[in-house]
Amino acid sequence: MRFRHPDGSTVHLAYCTNVHPAETLDGVLAQLRDHCEPVRRRLGRDRLGIGLWLAKDAAHALVTDPSALRGLRTELDRRGLEVVTLNGFPYEGFGAEEVKYRVYRPDWADPERLDHTTALARVLAGLLPDDVTEGTVSTLPLAWRTAYDEGRAEKAHAALVTLAERLDALDELTGRSIRVGLEPEPGCVVETTEDALAPLTAIAHPRIGICVDTCHLATSFEDPHTALDALTAARVPVVKSQLSAALHAEHPHLPEVRAALAAFDEPRFLHQTRTSTAAGLRGTDDLGEALHADALPDAGPWRSHFHVPLHAAPAAPLTSTLPVLEAALTRMVGGPHPLTRHLEVETYTWQALPPELRPRGRAQLADGIAAELTLARDLLTGLGLKELP
Question: Considering the entire predicted model, what is its pTM?
Answer without folding.
Answer: 0.97
